[in-house]
Structure formats: structure tokens, C-alpha cells
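Sharing a chain and its predicted structure for anyone who wants a worked example. Both blocks are below, sequence first, C-alpha cells second.
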Amino acid sequence: MSRPWILTSPASRGIGFALTRHLLLNTRAPVVATARRDLDSVRSSLLESCEKNGAGKEDLSGMDKRLQVSQLDVTDESSISECAAKCKSMFPSKTHHLHLAYLIPGILHPEKSPSQIDADNALSTFRVNTLGPMLLAKHFMPFLPRKATPAPAEDEMKGLPNIAAMALMSARVGSVSDNARGGWYSYRSSKAAVNQLVKSFDIYVRNTAGDKAMVLGLHPGTVKTGLSKEFWDSIGEKGLLEPDQAAEHLYSVVLEKGKDGEGRGRCWDWKNTEVPP
């Protein structure tokens, strides 16, 4: 048997923080959460948040043992490599495999007209939104199961998809065919590139893992985080999701698509509706 583990990157705030807490509360597998800094503070905040959300003393003790917060900056490949090396020592491939990964870095520099495009901001957008998940996948994809990887024990699969899944954060505005408003040139382009990564990585994973692993993209909706703060008033409360809501939806989508791999290589929104390419 191969024992599953989970990765969320980054996990220090917003959707990543909420997802990590949700995974700690609803699964039994070890969880590696990443942050650029303040690792002890992030770890304490996650465990405190689990306690506030109903975790008892015995549960918290187990979560304390399962949770590993590791330093990682998606704009620094050496830090990604170092984190992957630590995971390799903690989870040897002979006995473990990465069963669920959320690769979700993201920043937004909105541009309403081409005159607002700034080269440095655009480059930063692509470094985080596109190169970030690309490099995370480069270093962590080898941890996904292979065709010959034995199945996990049933009791360790609580709350996990049947098929190992690597989920990349996309966005509806990354859809070319759905683009009716224009604008947000850097952000749209960076997310359109993520959709291409999802398809290409899934083809690779299908070759190495067969039906034991898949890659998919996710659109979280408009979530009440720092990334979208500038647009809260224009969207209104009814159109906004809290990070907890978004995390629960994205978790449910991956569980659903991970039943049989039917949605692999494509992008899905928080309502489990496909986002067209």
C-alpha cells in the first residue's frame, strides 16, 4: 500500500488558508502547507482556526502531527526545490504518494485599457500566476502516483478523491471564448496560460500514472480576499464568496471530478460547471 499526503501552496491566507483548514478537518492524510514567511505563526493560526471550527482536543492532537508548514516562494525556484526535497525525505516514493495538491498562487494588477499595462507588473503577474504553478508542478508532479503505485488503504482515503488530483488555480477570465469584455490583459493572459498548462500536464500525467492521477483547473468565483478587494463594491455582497465558502466548493469539485477522472485536463468553476477554453 502507498500512503497518501496532501499539498496546499500557498496556504498563509485567503483561499489557501481556508482550504488547508478544510483538509485538516475532513481528511486523515498528512498536509504540507507552504508560506513565504512566518511559518510558526501560520501553523498556529491554522490549528487555532481548526479548533474554532469544531476540532476537539484529540482531533487537534492528530492535526498537530499531520500538519507541516514549509517555506516556499513561488517566484524563487530554489525554495520550491528545497521544499520538494524535504517532502521527499518525509514521504519516500516507495511508501507514499501525493494524492491531492492545490497549486493556487495568484496576484492581480487590473488594467482597464492598454495604456495601463506596466511591464514590471505584467512580468510579476506571469511570474506568480503562470510560472508559479508551472514550477510547483515541475517539482511536485513526481510525487503523484505512477501506474505501478499500489492503492492506499481504505481508512487513509477518508475525504480524498478516488483518483489523485493536482489542481491549478485558473479563472473564468482566462477563457478566450468567454471573453466578451476585454481588459485585465496581464491577468487574463496569465490565466489562459494556466489552462494550457492544465491540459499539457494532464497529458503527461495520463502517460505516467494512467487513471491513477489527473490534473485539472479551478475557478473559485469572486472571493472576498485581498486580490479582489478593489472590486467588492461593484460586485456586491451577493456576488462575493467568503474564503471558507470558496474552499468548500473547490474541495467538493475536486472530489466529484476525482471519482472517475471524467473532468481531467479541463477547468471547472466553483459550481462544478466547465469553464470553456
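Comments welcome. The beta strands are 3-9, 31-35, 67-71, 96-103, 164-169, 213-219, 267-269, 274-275.
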